[in-house]
Specification:
8-stranded mixed β-sheet, Rossmann fold
């Protein structure tokens, strides 16, 4: 590691569970962030600051005035630009050594292959179930760890699915697609408490750093539920669902069994 990197990341290198090998693992990692809204914006900043080597930013939207209440990587001058472009400019100012790949588009079945090639970990910072379910299926199929966050009104949730390990549940174990309500709650209609979005997005970055740096204990098998209005936090234990349509396996007799 070069002296300039040792100085830049010196406050991490002082941590008892962190050494140069930990930092090198981050510098050699490539993370995909899907969604650069209230979650993806702070997550991207902290991943860039921590020394992730490469970030792919995926979001089809342009910056609007209403975004600035919570999307802290953006500024008033960015209105009208693609979010991926404006966010990349901010990240490059923060850490010029960061390699950035910009995808001003939505995640689809058609572009998923190129988006996920070479990716070590994915942050799901999207705002709709279709993207969440697609990401879950794709990451499960490729055994790519997935950090999932969501915020609406004063409610936030966070968990991690590490598909490198066969016992990890998946997003469809938590929210089976067939039982979800047809109409989603969206912040454009319901509102969102901006500091809570920052908290969830920042800790998504924390989960990613722990997994990539190979230290600490992740949220695999646990779901955090946070209430920004009461400052209450609950933790639920998640188990893999043997009947899950994504991570369950059908045996020869038609019964759902675990891998």
């Amino acid at each position: 590691m070069e002296d300039s990197a040792r100085l830049r990341y010196s406050r991490h290198l002082l941590l008892p569970s962190w050494d140069e090998h930990t930092q090198q693992r981050l510098l050699g990692s490539h993370v995909l962030i899907v969604g650069l809204g209230g979650l993806g914006s702070p997550a991207a900043l902290y991943l860039a600051a921590a020394g992730i080597g490469q970030l792919t930013l995926c979001d089809p939207d342009e910056v609007e005035l209403t975004n600035l209440q919570r999307q802290i990587a953006l500024s008033h001058a960015d209105i009208g630009q693609y979010k991926v472009v404006a966010t990349a400019q901010r990240l490059s100012q923060l850490n010029p050594t960061l390699q950035l790949h910009l995808r001003p588009e939505s995640l689809t079945q058609d572009n998923a292959s190129t988006l996920l090639d070479g990716i070590d970990l994915v942050l799901d910072c999207s705002d709709n179930f279709a993207t969440r379910f697609l990401l879950n299926t794709l990451c499960y199929g490729r055994r790519i760890p997935l950090v999932s966050g969501a915020v609406i009104r004063f409610r936030g949730q966070l968990t991690t699915f590490d598909f490198r390990h066969p016992g990890s549940p998946c997003y469809a174990c938590l929210f089976p697609p067939e039982v979800l309500q047809e109409e989603e709650e969206r912040c454009a209609l319901m509102g969102v408490f901006s500091p809570l979005a920052g908290l969830i997005g920042t800790w998504q970055a924390g989960e990613a750093i722990k997994l990539l740096g190979e230290f600490g204990t992740s949220l695999v098998g646990r779901l955090w539920l946070l209430d920004g209005e009461t400052s209450m936090c609950r933790e639920l234990v998640l188990h893999r669902d043997p009947g899950c349509s994504v991570c369950g396996v059908v045996d020869q007799e038609g019964c759902q069994v675990l891998e």
